[in-house]
Every structure is written in structure tokens, then in C-alpha cells.
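Weekly puzzle thread! Below is a chain. First person to post its structure in C-alpha cell form gets bragging rights.
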Amino acid sequence: MGSGFWGSHKTQMIQAIAASFMLLTRITALKAIILG
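Winning reply:
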């Protein structure tokens, strides 16, 4: 297990965080549309 393992793992974590952030933004926008 070298730097390659941690590199791919870090990329997966960043992608997961980005995906959840995008989902959160969509939910917030949806709430604004429904409430506004």
C-alpha cells in the first residue's frame, strides 16, 4: 500500500463530498422555489 492507494481514496472522498454538496445545494434551491 503506497501513495497510490491513498491518492485514489482521497479522490473518492473529495468526489463524495462534492456530490453531497451539490445535493445540498439542489435541496436548498428546491426549498427556495417551493417556499418562495
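Puzzle host: Confirmed. Bonus trivia for everyone else. The mean pLDDT is 88.
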